[in-house]
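Homework-ish question, so no full write-ups if that breaks the rules, but can someone show me the predicted structure for this set?
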Amino acid sequence: MFRFLLPLATAVTLLCGTAAQALTADAARAMAAGDTDDRIAALQKATATPDAATAAFVQAMADDAVKITPATVLVMKDDKGFDASTGAETPVPDDAEDIVNNNRMRGAFEGTLASLKLLSPERSERAAAIEALREETDTGRLPIIDRALAAETDDGLKTRLQSIRSRILLSSQDATQRSAAAAELGNSASPATRTLLIEQLKQETDPAAKAAMQKALAAVEGRLVWGERLAALFSGISLGSILLLVALGLAITYGLMGVINMAHGELMMIGAYATYVVQGLFQKYLPGAFDFYLVAAVPVAFMASALVGAGLERSVIRFLYGRPLETLLATWGISLMLQQLVRSVFGAQNVGVENPAWMSGGLQLMDNLALPWNRVIIVAFAFAVLGAMAWLIGRTRLGLFVRGVTQNRPIASCMGVNTARIDTYAFALGSGIAGLAGCALSQVGNVGPDLGQGYIVDAFMVVVLGGVGQLAGTVYAALGLGVLNKLLEGWTGAVLAKIAVLVIIIVFIQKRPQGIFAMKGRSAEA
Amino acid sequence: MSNHSILPQRAPLLSTPAWSAFFAALLVVCALVPVLHLVMPPDSPLHMSEYMVALVGKIMCYAIVALAMDLIWGYTGILSLGHGLYFALGGYVMGMYLMRQIGRDGNYKSDLPDFMVFLDWKELPWHWSLSSSFTATLFLVVLVPGIVAFVFGYFAFRSRIKGVYFSIITQAMTFAAMLLFFRNETGFGGNNGFTDFKRILDMPLATRNMRMTLFVITGCTLLLFFLLSRWMVASKFGRVLQAIRDAETRVMFSGYKPLPYKLSIWVISAVMCGIAGALYVPQVGIINPSEMSTAASIEMAVWAAVGGRATLVGPIIGAFVVNGAKSWLTVTAPEYWLYFLGALFIVVTLFLPDGIVGLWKRLRGRGGRGPKAAAQQSAALEEGQAPTGAVAPATGGAQ
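A: Not a homework solution, just the prediction itself:
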């Protein structure tokens, strides 16, 4: 609150120059003591025509720096008393008492100070004051808002002030004023306006005003509905991009290599913990560059998971090629061990991974449509990883070998491809992408030993739905499932939406066991 | 098991030593344990404590599940990662009955179960309407898992979903069911599930005699299911199942339709799990949605794998070994339990494809890679080709 008040004194002082003597002793006393209703009335009366002394006095009251005696009202500064109306230094008598401010009184002070700030010469301060008053409905603020409107030069701020004025007028005593205000509010597109209109509609008695309000409400809702739709779509894409990241690694290890890796989730967990470790190192050794820890964490997470993945492939999985059910059980065993390992090293509790500063906040596109930066960045990151992977598989020599080995191992081997080594590389690549997914997830969710468990069912669903061996299928399935999930969520609630999606997938696979994009040709039925 | 004649003689249900072992087990369950628990004075070293009775009773329920897993996985080659669902369904049916048996003795002294009072429900939801009758409960314990398995199995097998695809779908199905049971409004007690049972058939649950009765019933059920499974796998039905496991396409070309066979064994296996769940709940005293978690269902597969697939005795041994180790390790060294379990998964799949029973046979020098092991291996190869065709088992690191 103090941060808010300090520039105020300067602002009002500048505004009102030297006209400091307008605060009378009686007015000061009326504001400082007595019944709360009376005090608020006095406060509104005094600040309707604001001046520096009044502003300073209100601020002093808000700061609990006012004492009162039967004879005078004193503003305390550095343990010295100053008379509120004259400003002269006055000795503080022993019977001086602190004034008592209840919460309602404090609210009134804050609102008053904000409305005083409306007259500030600084545009940014006025904008901040308007922002602070945007939910205001107190008719007592009307005079000062009118004054500010008259003085306002900035068009954008003027429109916003106008809408605040309409909100206040909506609760005025005069029915025609209420209708006019409602018509004006119909131009708004903020959820707060909708709530206000709905509330006012309940108590409105005048038919004309009621009709005006209903019309305004319909207009506001029409505008809001788009924001809501886009918000649902974005959160669907955001969920879809996370699913995509999670499933991309599986698209290699399962889709291309046919390895059912139940430890995929744990490889993500390793990526997330790698991010946590990098964050810790930056905090300790490079606190100045802390904001960039995430950039450093991306390759570290990739390498950590890729190395673990390569180790798994060499030690366990390569003995199980062609035996998918056994692979499933063995990798499940690996996942249990990795979870317990992380629990032993980092503890069973979730660890905290902070967003760097550039990832907090968001992009406010509409009043009810804000895109958080961390989500936007993850969507972009998911597509960047997708692009890199498509390039790696489709355009590089390694990708050629991987495709060759998966399509026809003996022939690839005859051509001199070291198939065992390619298997290791491919598995490490899939694992590394899981690590990247873990790094991304650390920015939007909890990082704990169970991190991977929550995603493993979803990830397999995406790959199976998309069609095994199909990158494009994985992309469509991930985004489709994400959007479908979020749309259903708005309708049925989160858990039922999830259940519905699972059931839809199960039914879909009955119809098309090969996924959305079936492999064609000889490999389809092999 | 079979020799190479065209129409093999039907093998006897059990060999003579096996019958002896069977009756010995029956004697232990029905006479020895009751005597050790009820007659022996508590300070005697031969006394079997309540903890042990409860533990063994619980593991016998798991052994029934392992047997069911063996029928579907070991003998038919279908790995289910969703048998926890059927186990939980049977358990929930029994749990509903036990909740009704609490009557007005709950915390809220209401006719409704406590959690419904807590949710401010005024009457029982429709699916609770049969829960007051014990006879209906016994039927539902069989019917509910049976029907769910039938519907799911029919559609899955009809679309010829095989191998890993099938496993993943069963997993998704169980996961969806778990989410559903976690909800309060579905009327299954949400997170907490059902607990605080007081009596069964109007008799108190927490007495030594009741515990012993449930123990004996569970043991007899297990032995009965063992005989039944033994009979099934030795019959023509069982031989077709194994043929499906080893070469489904060849079975089809021989004029058999795999669907009814697969569906029957799938439903039988689910019903066995349901019965195991119903026996489990009164002994353990709680049922909640965590029984349907992915981990719980996969653990069931490892019981069968550890003991030895396609052996019937193996899964029972596996259930005892794994769960015995679990209850011992989670008490003495809880942080090592997951390492142990994880390592068990890996060691069994890498080094003990035939489980403990296979190891024992090999040690006794008569097993080796007999015809059955070879058959299993060819089954594995076939499975490998079925879902993706991605990795042809040949050179490189494979095999």
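Now go work out the reasoning yourself. Hint: The beta strands of chain A are 66-68, 73-77, 80-83, 89-90, 97-98, 362-366, 369-372.
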